[in-house]
Design a protein that fits this description.
This protein is an all-alpha fold. About 80% of the residues lie in helices and about 0% in strands. It has two domains: about 120 residues, no CATH class; about 140 residues, no CATH class. It comes from Nocardioides massiliensis.
Length: about 260
């Protein structure tokens, strides 16, 4: 074992990292709670706001002391990045390292979005749909359509994993023992199950849109979470389905808060 890995394992077992992880999970939960709120509002007919992480952060920035709150979320998400980096360096298995690296990237992207929103005072970060712009750039490459389709498949795999974690209740391992016993513990696990499935469904639609964009060479048909939820809204019984997804994502937020309280690393 290298000195860096040994030092990382010492940090990983420290109480200080527990506090870092708990603060980060609260920030992560806040982002999902805001997405759930905007998605629910969208289901009820209010199309103001974007039901993705950036839109959620802009919604937060528009509140009293919003900039301070967004900065707090950004710092919390950076703490999640730190937590996963420590796991990455100190991890024993290759699979665990890959998982930690992937999660660190996700949290870093969210933190970057929060910092941009905070610096802009909650205003727009430029025109155009970011996902469509990125897709268009990839499609311009010689094998771009296949790259885009592969990214879409990757998102679909991620969605399936989320649904599987919810159905199999693997997420229960992320709660300390005292958080898994009794009626409260069962409620926490149930919230996580519903939340993981709902989030998986939402990202499944995102992945499908990206795959379709690659196969049809049409960047306009791609999109992020906001576009995916609008796609759900356009289906038969769309408002009801979208409201169910919004409630599910809210459950995921509640699970994040429960996990912050009963953290098992």
């Amino acid at each position: 074992m290298t000195d860096a890995a040994h030092a990382a394992q010492k940090v990983e077992r420290s109480d200080a990292l527990d506090h870092v992880a708990r603060a980060g999970l609260v920030a992560y939960g806040v982002v999902h709670l805001l997405i759930a709120f905007i998605a629910g509002r969208l289901a009820l007919g209010d199309r103001s706001g974007s039901a993705d992480s950036t839109g959620a952060l802009k919604e937060l920035a528009a509140q009293p002391f919003g900039s301070v709150l967004v900065w707090a979320v950004a710092v919390g998400l950076l703490m999640l990045v730190l937590w996963r980096v420590v796991e990455l360096v100190g991890g024993d298995g290759a699979l665990d390292r890959v998982k930690s690296a992937g999660r660190a990237v996700v949290y870093a992207v969210l933190s970057y979005s929060a910092i941009r929103v905070a610096l802009s005072g909650g205003g727009g970060g430029g025109g155009g749909n970011t996902e469509e712009t990125m897709t268009a750039r990839l499609l311009a490459l010689p094998v771009g359509r296949w790259i885009v389709a592969a990214v879409g498949v990757g998102i679909l795999v991620f969605a399936v994993v989320l649904v599987w974690r919810g159905i199999s209740r693997k997420h229960a391992k992320e709660l300390a023992t005292e958080g898994r016993t009794g009626s409260a513990g069962r409620a926490y696990v149930a919230l996580g199950a519903v939340g993981h499935v709902a989030k998986g469904v939402a990202f499944g639609v995102v992945g499908g849109l990206v795959v379709h964009a690659g196969l049809t060479h049409d960047a306009d048909s791609s999109g992020g979470l906001d576009q995916a939820l609008l796609e759900v809204l356009q289906q038969p019984f769309g408002p009801v389905l979208l409201l169910a997804v919004a409630v599910g994502i809210g459950c995921f937020a509640a699970f994040c808060f429960a996990r912050a309280r009963h953290l098992s690393r």
